[in-house]
Amino acid sequence: MPAKVVVVGSLNMDLVTRASRLPRAGETLIGQTFSTVPGGKGANQAVASARLGAEVAMIGCVGTDAYGTELRDALLVEGIDCQAVSRVDGSSGVALIVVDDNSQNAIVIVAGSNGELTPASLQAYDAECCRQPRWSSASWRCRWRPWASRSGVAESWVRP
After folding, report:
1. pTM of the complete model
2. Is the pLDDT of residue 157 over 70?
3. Residue 65: phi, psi to the nearest 5?
């Protein structure tokens, strides 16, 4: 039986450019390449868990912009349950990343829709998952509370 993992976290579109070095304050550099890559700490953990064979559900928020659609679709391609990935008005989270020739980076994030994730978001998911046999096992419930207390999740987010 595969492990069951629920990830609560951020979904960002990473806007990645490579440059020979990181820019100094006030400086403009010419980049070598540019790409957009679905990311975010939470989404990355969800994808890694799914690729290792776990059944994964993601809890988070994406915006109503094109990035939101792309972020959610990227999770679905990986077989991740996205029922609790909410679409909220506005832009999705983004990370502006510059990577130099030595693989050092500088990152600026804009939380966007990630800032809309609230305890109510998790409670809505909690109610939904109780109706789905694959996520309502007693063993999942027993593991949820210790994880939450170790990770600093607010008590109101923790399943009773």
Report:
1. 0.75
2. no
3. -85, 175
Neighbours of 13 (CB within 10 A): 26
- Angle, helix 66-77 to helix 41-51, in steps of 10 degrees: 20
Residue-level length of the chain: 160
Cα separation values, 22 from 98, 107, 133, Å: 7, 10, 50
Could you report the per-residue pLDDT of 27-68, keeping only the tens digit for each?
999 999 999 999 999 999 999 999 999 999 999 999 999 999
Structure tokens, 61: 């928020």
Please write the tens of the pLDDT for every residue from 90-147: 999 999 999 999 999 999 999 999 998 877 666 665 555 544 544 443 333 333 333 3
DSSP string spanning 65-114? SHHHHHHHHHHHHTT-EEEEEEEESSPPEEEEEEE-TTS-EEEEEE-GGG
Judged on CB neighbours under 10 Å (0-12, 13-18, 19+), 117 is buried
**DSSP secondary structure code for residue 156 in this structure:** G
61 C-beta neighbours (distance < 10 Å), count: 25
- As a whole number of angstroms, the distance between CA 10 and CA 85 comes to 10
